[in-house]
Amino acid sequence: MTKESSPGQGTPREEPGWAFQPRRRAAAPRPYEERRQTEPSASGHGRPTGNSSAPRWDTTVPLRFPEPRTGRHEAVPEPDRGHPPLPRRGSETVVTEPGHPAAATAVLDRAGLAHPESAAPQPAPAAGAAGGERRGGSSRVGRIALVLVVLAALVGAAAVLLAQEDAATVASSNLRQAWQIPAPAADDTLTGSWLTGELLVRASSRGGLRAYDLTDGRQLWNTTPSADAAERGTVPCAMSPTLSARGIGTVAFGKDGSTCTWLAGVRAATGKILWSMPLTSTKHPAAATAATYLQGDVATVVSENFLGGVDIRTGDRVWGYKARGHYCNAYDWGTDGTVLVGDFCLDRKTRFTLTAYDGRTGRKIWQKPESAHSEVTHILSGSPLVAAVHTARQDAVRVFDTSGTGRKLAVGDDELTSGNDTAADHSARIYGHVLVTPASAAGRTVIDGFDITTGARLWTHDSAVLAVPAPGADDTVYAVTTSGSPQLIAIDPRTGHSRPVAGLPAGTGTWHLTSGTVYVRPDGGVLELNALGTNGGVRLYQ
After folding, report:
1. SS3 of residue 151 by DSSP
2. Average of pLDDT values for 197-226?
């Protein structure tokens, strides 16, 4: 295990243009009051950003800031309340299909359950006919007995078939717990993770940034920031979901797990910090929520204070956001490959716009005029862009093309999320033309499949958490069931049909994850990373 400070951890560079300029009051009264989340979303951490006339990074006049968890914030004038706030988030109207009373009636009619008519009086039977009637009655009794025997046989056969079907859903092999890494503390919260062929890198609020050998769970390294970095905070608060081809990722740190003060490039194999840059400045001293994503050798920084791209190898600036006006409020959200910005500018004819930028170059992909502010609650995919967008009129999950035209997904009352009930997980992804994503349906944890070309929902799988395929694994959709005996299952993304792959242990070493990340390794092993320390830390099943 190595513990070393790196040259990149010294006093951070603060280049001119990185920090936004001082915020200025708009010349005209603000006609709109923002209604926004105070907690970061799972996908993009929706935040107000800055805007000025600087060539790269610009300042904004935020309409309202969320209350920082650190207690440090800048004074913001009270917004104009002449306009009503945005309505609370709801869901799209669900059109329920009628039932089938006609079919049910037909079944009853075929069963012969109509009321019989009264029989007409019959003449007394002739002598000798009584014996024949008794023989006819015996025949009817025999026929009834035969029918009962046949029904019993059919019921028995159905039970056998059902039992065989249930038995067929049980995995033929079982995994056992190979090793476990306890959570550093009960209140530990997972920030993110990286998985390579040899090691797991885990970032959390109480455990810091550490790497573990996948063979036996032995710790390989943990980061030791320099004394200067320690003053700014050493708690991981954001982590890129992926690594670059060079094995480098980005991690943001702060004094708590919610707000960030500096960003670093980290080599996953050794834990060495290659470079660092501040996420605060003398003009913007308050720590803020942040997110970071990779696209090739460029890492995007998406926060209240900064929006742009840096070189993953050196930390040098590649591009910076420039607002379209001098008196604007901008809100940014990100994912791998794409950044979305929703803004409101007092000094432009088109007051509201929603714009998509290429995360690698900063190039504008498309821009759409809006009639009101758009709040992006989740980004489920960057290519093609799939995002849950909330406006004053509706909530909708849309698949956007290169012109910004969006096709709605038929989500109904389900709430789609980019991960398994935590911002640290990024298991939603596209398989061919099917978006497979975790969702919440009436309080139940489900997995939904959508055709992104038509918007139709193809299937829903109840009581399961979606897994992330490890590097080198195939494109199979894996999940772990959360009801009954836990099993690793494979799901056909086109039909939703599942098949058991392996059983997971019950009792000691049983499955605990309800929120967090599940990796399925190429060798069939299952890695469980719980989001909360109360449910444990990391477990490997083989």
Report:
1. helix
2. 94
Strands 468-469 and 516-520: parallel
What is the DSSP secondary structure assignment for residue 535, as one 8-state letter? G
Contacts of 487 (CB under 8 A, 6+ apart): 170, 171, 480, 481, 500, 501, 502, 503, 504
Q: Residue 162: what pLDDT? A: 35
- Closest listed residue to residue 335, CA positions, set 377, 272, 279: 377
Closest CA to 34 of 99, 94, 84, 93: 84
Q: What does the pLDDT look like over 437-487, one tens digit per residue?
A: 999 998 889 999 999 999 999 999 998 999 998 777 677 899 999 888 899
Token duo for residue 474: 């195939």
Mean pLDDT in residue range 217-243: 90
At 69 the pLDDT is: 37
Listing DSSP states for 93-109 in one string gives: PP-PPP--HHHHHHHHH
Tokens read off for 357? 């930028």
Give me the phi and psi of 409, to 5 degrees please. Answer: -90, 145
Residues 6+ apart with CB under 8 A from 80: 29, 30, 31, 32, 33
Q: State the DSSP string of 204-225.
A: ETTTEEEEEETTT--EEEE---
Sequence letter at residue 397: V
**C-alpha dist (Å) from residue 280 to 2, 13, 14, 109, 262:** 30, 11, 9, 76, 7
Per-residue pLDDT band at 14 (split at 50, 70, 90): very low
Mean pLDDT of the chain: 76
